[in-house]
Amino acid sequence: MMEHARIVEVGPRDGLQNEKQSISTATKLELIERLVAAGLRDIEAASFVSPKWVPQMADHVEIMRGLVHHDGVNYPVLTPNLKGFEAAVAEGAKEVAVFASASEGFSQKNINCSIDESIDRFVPVFEAARRLGVRVRGYVSCAIDCPYDGAIAPGKVADVAQRLHELGSYEVSLADTIGTATPGSLLPMLEAVAKRVPVAQLAGHYHDTYGMAIANVVASYGFGLRVFDSSIAGLGGCPYAKGATGNVATEDVVYLLHGLGAETGIDLDVLVDCGAWISAALNRQTGSRVSRALIAKRPATAVA
Ligand code: HMG
Ligand code: MG
Q1: For ligand 1, mutation pick of 8, 17, 50 (most atoms within 8 Å of CB)
Q2: Which is nearest to 136 in space by CA: 104, 175, 89?
Q3: I want to staple 38 with a disulfide (CB 3.0 to 4.6 A). Which of 54, 190, 270, 301 is the partner?
Q4: Band of the pLDDT at 301, cuts 50, 70, 90?
């Protein structure tokens, strides 16, 4: 039987949130349409966070109003509290993501509260979401290391993941926020979490700062995970995790998963065009090795 793996594209959110140059709403919307054309079905479109904290996501309302709706395509948005949730739902959001941290230091720096306080803020979000039929995804940041607190114990990650699961997250995404994990540190964390949350409801969200993200996807796949977050052209980074680079590139994850015999529903050629387009729009080299290799093989006339 063919294995199936799902990719959650976080480029328009995680990929762009840290960009210093202002990116037009039209460019973001075109990026999302190109991702849909490549076959992505879960695309994080925006964040309903404070524009003072993340200015690049300030056009969240315009993004929601400009999204083209396609059958089977989900556009989750980040919501740190009830205020963000209500604003997102008023604009038609059907899926949101709440984000907690396994480390106190990052929780304070990223959302200005302790881990416990963040969970308290999420409770009314989950309640309202249940009432309104909105799906909620949960994130656990700093599942390996924290830029402020250092190494994080797997049990701590499992505690936070379990709380998000019990509150009603349909899936919990485990984030290597600063991209320091190797399979050696990742697998004990996955083992601890999997004792509390079913593996089928876990996702891997790996940043690629040390070039280990693709190795971590392989290790996670072997462990049983079938959902991975990634960012087109490897864009990204969190403004409150200094020095952390982008997520693992979607092109690289798709190439890997297809090589492992998993079906993703994504057309790699169209995806590579999309990555080349956004890299040109941002005036930078792609972070995807697969994209560079495939573009180098194309006839000189074939330009994205
Ligand atoms: P705060 O300052 O503690 O909030 O920020 P507050 O409740 O005291 O309110 C202060 C002001 O913010 C008020 O406005 C509120 O109305 C406003 P003022 O009266 O001063 O004009 N406010 C909001 N505005 C818009 N949307 C909202 C909202 N809530 C309050 N939802 C807050 C707390 C959580 C809002 C802030 O810290 C924040 O916005 N943080 C977001 C940080 C962020 O987006 N980080 C990046 C995403 S997470 C990430 O990248 C990690 C991930 O990729 C996984 C991984 O890799 O680890 C997911
Ligand atoms: Mg991230």
Answers
A1: 50
A2: 89
A3: 270
A4: low
